[in-house]
Amino acid sequence: MTPDFTDTHCHFDFPPFSGQELESLALAERAGVRRIIVPTVTADRFARVVKLARDYPPLFAALGLHPLYIAQHQEAELEQLAGFLASRPQKLVAVGEIGLDLYMENPQFERQQRVLKAQLKLAKEHDLPVILHSRRSHDQLAAMLRRSEVPRRGVVHGFAGSLSQAQAFIRLGYYIGVGGTISYERAQKTRSVMAQLPLTSLLLETDAPDMPLAGYQGQPNRPERAAEVFQELCRLRPESAEDIAAQLQHNTHALFTL
């Protein structure tokens, strides 16, 4: 089987990839990672990510305002996002990275919810799926998604919640992002969740340069390591590697229509 993976979540607009795009893409290609979705975190990165997707065939863009940067997100940034989405840039596949975060210091949670609600509305208007960030906020996020009804649904990326929380998102029609957390023996809860969820609900990701895999602590994570996340997932699941790879790709294309 020729490997054919998509890293559905990689911040390729950050170091160590910025300025090293061709070398980084060649390493990914060698590992079988042939497509990479690049979500933004702040409005000042929209143009850069759109240009990356235009300039490099393996890259696809997602535009959104990340909750960790809530202090930067004003009405003007939401208007910028609306303008970019209305222009429908080439290879735009999602609104993201958006979501909720109760782990950060001073979360300004009411404001986070207002910004997320506005972005879910934009996703609905422009018929795009969403890439969702959620830390210590799964129940609150699920409640908002129930009320906001995004027709194209989306993915809860880098998921590390409980099985029942994952199942709640899946019942709402959302996918669950599998990342490098499963490479850690101590992450028994997340490993168990990913072993039990339906394969039809999983997507492969790295969150590079964040979330390094076991054995790479202290180093920037990289998109080619999606292949190692896949290998770890195969060790946890009963299905064959071929079936897992085929279903992950099917899920990716069904959500993002790459």
Describe the model.
With 258 residues, the protein is an alpha/beta fold. The protein contains nine helices and eight strands. It has helices spanning 21-30, 46-55, 75-87, 109-125, 138-148, 163-171, 188-196, 226-236, 241-256, and strands spanning 5-7, 33-39, 59-63, 92-101, 130-135, 154-156, 175-178, 202-204. An eight-stranded parallel β-sheet has the order 1-2-3-4-5-6-7-8. Helix 3 packs parallel to helix 4. The mean pLDDT is 97. It comes from Serratia liquefaciens. One of its GO terms (cellular component) is cytosol. Keywords: Hydrolase, Metal-binding.
Brief descriptors of the model:
single chain; alpha/beta; TIM Barrel; eight-stranded parallel sheet; 8 strands; TatD-like
CATH superfamily (homologous) name: Metal-dependent hydrolases
- Summarize model confidence as the mean pLDDT: 97
Bulk shape: globular
How many structurally independent domains? 1
CATH architecture: Alpha-Beta Barrel
Radius of gyration: 17 Å
Contiguous helical run count:
9
CATH topology: TIM Barrel
Helix proportion range? 40-55%
Please identify the structural class as seen in this structure: alpha/beta
What is the tally of beta strands? 8
Indicate the proportion of strand residues.
15-25%
Run of helices and strands: EHEHEHEHEHEHEHEHH
**Largest beta sheet, briefly?**
8 strands, parallel
Poorly predicted ranges: none
GO molecular function: hydrolase activity, acting on ester bonds; metal ion binding
Binding site for a divalent metal cation 2: 133, 157
InterPro entries: Metal_Hydrolase, TatD-like
Protein name: Metal-dependent hydrolase
